[in-house]
Task: structure prediction
Amino acid sequence: MIDVREAKNLIKDNLICERIVSLPLSEACGFILAERVLAAFDTPSFDQSAMDGYAFSHENWDGKTELTIAGEVRAGTYTPDLLKPMQTVRIFTGAPIPAGADTVVMQENVTVFGKANRINIGQITKGSNIRLRGSQTRKSEVALKEGKLLSAPAISFLAGIGIDKVRVYAKPHISIIITGKELLKPGSTISFGKIFESNSLGITAALMQLNISPVSIDFIDDIEEELIRAIKNRMGADILIVTGGISEGNYDFTAEALNKCSVEKLFHRVKQKPGKPFYFGKYLQTAVFALPGNPAAALTCFYEYIVPAIGYFTRKEYFQKLKIPLADDYKKKVGLTYFLKGKISSGTVTVLSGQESYMMNSFAMADCLIQLDEEKEQYIKGELVDVLMII
Amino acid sequence: MIDVREAKNLIKDNLICERIVSLPLSEACGFILAERVLAAFDTPSFDQSAMDGYAFSHENWDGKTELTIAGEVRAGTYTPDLLKPMQTVRIFTGAPIPAGADTVVMQENVTVFGKANRINIGQITKGSNIRLRGSQTRKSEVALKEGKLLSAPAISFLAGIGIDKVRVYAKPHISIIITGKELLKPGSTISFGKIFESNSLGITAALMQLNISPVSIDFIDDIEEELIRAIKNRMGADILIVTGGISEGNYDFTAEALNKCSVEKLFHRVKQKPGKPFYFGKYLQTAVFALPGNPAAALTCFYEYIVPAIGYFTRKEYFQKLKIPLADDYKKKVGLTYFLKGKISSGTVTVLSGQESYMMNSFAMADCLIQLDEEKEQYIKGELVDVLMII
Result:
């Protein structure tokens, strides 16, 4: 039996997660860039007006004479004619500055007169209100670096410089196998001795928080040959999650089935509560996690171990880690790390009542997991504890 | 022109967002419950073992005599026979306690002997290691209250008590109309005077952060009749977002088109930078937001105004609001609220360089928007400012 830190390190050291994919920009939000993106053009690609106003040659203007309006240029249009000295054109935001003009005056700062074809201009600095070609991004320069999160503004930025696809760190392909003879589908009628199967929904929902859909979910009725067949069948996945049958009862044959499938066991059993039977192994490129069938233990292991493992693929940290003062004293047993369902309120974190591993109602109310150290017995109100947010 | 606070209040007061839907539990993660969920059964629905061990009648035991193993009961099975005094059954976690038994002893705490059909038990309290029927949830009691976030553990909890569908506050149906004659599709060749269209991708990506896909995106080439047709066509949406054509240039006819579509204008122009031309109106049940075409201004208005509006539908707060000390002094003009692209590092927030409204590269690096007050001119390093996280 190993401790939580060793378990986390073994996972980190044994994952093979170099999956990079090319995605259309429209599907890339939330991914991490796996390349540096170079600008293919200057952006703006032409000198453009930053305002609705009038473009003219400040160079050839005496600072006082009114100018004649020679035409109009709006965004998306092109004026081939050279602007003559003492002429001006009406111009709109984003429109190209005509050849011969070097300055734009805001429409609010001019007086139009003489059948509306002449304007008077006040004080203005040469070059005002022009967004120069390349002033945002220059051709061939690095627009975004490798490792950058593609936020919505980053997507908009890349679209704006003409990028339509990017290489990103891919999400892992995840397969789930649910074992258990006692499991009923929710919505069916309860029958004696059976319980409703909830891990497939709980784990799928937790994956949805990471914007991941499992590629498959198999349900196995505690028959070892069926489990072996299912495991072999899903060995193409990056991550295989098996729930149930991992304790030490006579019918807990998940570890044995994984062994028969040549999965290399890296650890089985961790000094923690809940989730002591937690198992991790690998087979070629596939990381295999076996979770206790107990839904609270399964989800605890999912948040504490599998979410970071997924993050090694996608290069993301999904949930915040905080240090928050405990709302009350808490006493635990020495020798196990505790992961407790917690709720944060007014800057402190409360250990919710109902921490037994089958009590999902407390987990349903939780916004975080509180981690209490293996070697420590007594926690005092106000003491800072490690908290992993789960929403 | 109104101020930011008035604009936010007008949106809040004028949204009609009573959309409730029934969803399969498998699709309900991340939604807010619009009903209280009652338990249909006791859970556990039977007394069950919390351990792998041996079940026996503590009541009929003298505290020292060894017990005879009469059989075995595992999860998902049912033992009709009454257990006799001084008998025990091998039992596994989650299995039903046989009639006549009242206590389970952990397998680690017994000695098996006599051809492995008898056990010796140490000290144990009556009732140990049994999860009593109804000890998590009692039939007819409220399992989850209205207003509760359906986290993954909440989904797992509800599945575990046999729930398979829930009523939740629905996401709004959102339609987007992009206007602009100057817009090219990203990936196409740049041509003089044109820019790449990025708002459709940027806004869709930002909606994806909220797990929302727009129901439609129309592209309109700055022709008023076409715009009017598109607006009328999309009036079934809960939220209609129009980008571009909302400034005061001669070709900015979005406000006029909305007026011709009988959209009631609630405000147009807000004392803010960027996004001054921002417009909000409504037509029957449809909330209409018109954003400046400038991508940075459009996304700023999206995060500051439309995300909270979506939250009124879904009853969620999507992005964290924090108060963080400024990393440096900052001087602004009085009379406008500023929304600045910021980045948090080591507990302070830095105003990124490149705040001009067309500079998307700074927005691409930002993790937050910093809000600076309309009436204030000078901010001092270390001063707490309002920050809206955007990732």
Observations:
- Chain A has a mean pLDDT of 94.
- The helical segments of chain A are 4-14, 152-160, 199-209, 224-233, 254-260, 295-314, 360-365.
- The radius of gyration of chain A is 31 Å.
